[in-house]
Design brief:
Elements (H helix, E strand, L loop, with lengths): L43 E5 L3 H12 L3 E5 L5 H10 L2 E3 L2 H7 L2 E4 L6 H10 L6 E4 L5 H10 L4 E8 L10 E5 L2 H10 L6 E6 L4 H29 L3 H9 L11 H25 L5 H10 L13 H10 L2
Parallel strand pairs: 1-2, 1-4, 2-3, 4-5, 5-6, 7-8
Antiparallel strand pairs: 6-7
Helix pairs in contact: 1-2, 4-5, 7-8, 7-9, 7-10, 9-10
Length: 319
């Protein structure tokens, strides 16, 4: 396979015009210019989609030297900016992306996970691995596997903040031992720490939702407790009590606006956790109530400049 020459470059920066028809954007000639000196060649990765977590994960893979593709179709200017800053290679043709990718990573809101898998299946993806890295139940992981019989679905779960500014999340993996090992190798030397938790699809997702059911619901409870204390003029005293306990979320009032801005993602995740609790014959009402409280913050989506006062007002009434 020859390296791309002049007039035969299938990838572009966002500022460059698209060279030729969309089907040329992800030409195999683009992603192995060192072939003949590498054995085996580095896999090409398709990223669906570069949100805040996805773009940061993609940037880590780019730093490792991997080719990371993404599809511009239907994505916002904000997403395009994130992808550009992460060094991802854009194209407009979803089918060509899937035809080029050896590994597809799905990182999207949990409610969209199965729809994304259906779209991938409709385009006939038959690459090596489909990494289902969304906060979904083990049953949905198995559903995704059934939707994609021509590839191997690896169950993945990211726990931690996006890998940027010194933050180092963990990527928990489960499923086929050979394929989980290959995914683990992709992230070697990055700020994403891959850990294999078992050989059963769904184990990584169960870990993620078990953690989320505590961590995210606790953030909601902390916000509710502060709002209740503020209603009665005793919020300062509440914080005094909270600071006597090491690591109490109650003392972290700066995180309440952050929770509000992320509520649009957290609510569906807690509903996934509620479904998993119900499957295990455990009470699920607490998670559903927390998700309901988060829905009051629906209009606060990704508002980085939200104040504590505004967040509490929205929690009371919904904006």
């Amino acid at each position: 396979m020859a390296a791309p020459g002049p007039g035969n470059t299938p990838f572009r920066t966002e500022s460059q015009p698209i060279p030729g028809p969309p089907s040329a954007l992800f030409s195999p000639q683009a992603h192995s210019p060192l072939e003949g000196r590498m054995s085996p060649p580095e896999p090409t990765i398709g990223l669906l989609h570069p949100g805040s977590m996805g773009a940061a994960v993609g940037a880590q893979l780019r730093r490792r030297g991997h080719t990371v593709l993404w599809c511009v179709e239907g994505r916002s200017e904000r997403t395009r900016l994130r992808a550009r800053e992460a060094g991802l290679l854009p194209g407009t043709d979803f089918s060509s992306l899937l035809g080029q990718a050896d590994v597809v990573i799905s990182l999207c809101p949990p409610a969209a996970a199965e729809d994304v898998a259906r779209k991938v299946a409709a385009h006939g993806f038959s690459g090596d691995v489909y990494l289902e890295a969304n906060a979904v139940t083990p049953e949905k992981v198995r559903s995704v596997s059934r939707l994609l019989p021509t590839t191997t679905v690896v169950d993945g779960a990211v726990i931690g903040s996006p890998p940027a500014n010194g933050k180092r999340p963990s990527l928990y993996l489960s499923g086929d031992p050979v394929k989980t090992a290959s995914v683990k190798a992709l992230f070697s030397g990055t700020d994403v720490k891959p850990l294999v938790v078992g050989d059963l699809p769904g184990q990584a997702s169960a870990l993620k939702l078990s953690y989320s059911s505590f961590q995210k619901a606790s953030r909601v409870l902390a916000a509710l407790a502060y709002a209740l204390a503020a209603e009665h003029g005793v919020e300062a005293e509440l914080l005094d009590v909270a600071r006597k306990r090491s690591g109490s979320y109650l003392a972290e009032t700066d995180y309440i606006p952050i929770t509000a801005a992320r509520a649009w993602r957290w609510g569906p995740e807690l509903l996934e956790a509620a479904d998993l609790l119900a499957e295990a014959s455990l009470p699920d009402e607490v998670m559903r109530a927390a998700a309901s409280a988060l829905s009051n913050w629906e209009e606060c989506k990704d508002q980085a400049d939200l104040s504590l006062t505004q967040a509490i007002a929205a929690l009371r009434t919904g904006i």
